[in-house]
Amino acid sequence: xREGRKHTPEELEKMSAAHRGVxxxxxxxxxxxxxxxxxxxxxxxxxxRGPKNHEWKGGLKKYMxxxxxxxxxxxxxxxxxxxxxxxxxxxxxxxVLLPSEVVHHINGKAGDNRIENLMLFSSKEExxxxxxxxxxxxxxxxxNEHKN
Length: 148
Ligand SMILES: [Zn+2]
What we know:
Blueprint: H1 9-24, H2 26-36, H3 44-49, E1 55-57, E2 60-63, E3 66-70, E4 81-83, H4 84-93, E5 102-105, E6 118-121, H5 124-139
Antiparallel strand pairs: 1-2, 2-3, 3-4, 5-6
The structure holds zinc ion.
């Protein structure tokens, strides 16, 4: 629903700042590694079996590691599909993302769409800034891989 309540730029900034804080806390990083040990990844087996860019599970498609989910009624659906990471973020926020907003995968795994692996940026510019900052953090020993 395009006409759903929109967040002000201030609110968006607050949210992305909050995500940034969460991202860098040791507790959060620990939660991520716990998740990677196999919790909450029921689709992993199918993901590995399916060839690239091929429909591999009812209503889901994979492209370059990213998952698209069938969602024909979505206001920003393309050919009936929407990036799953955007849907997950939308469910979390309770609103539809603007086309200008960017969802980032914290651990760099494009198919890992757990909400705790996702981070919202209000624009491509904010996202790019974060990646420059990420380079700095990596040098300091923080992990921040990326594939958009
Ligand atoms: Zn990114």
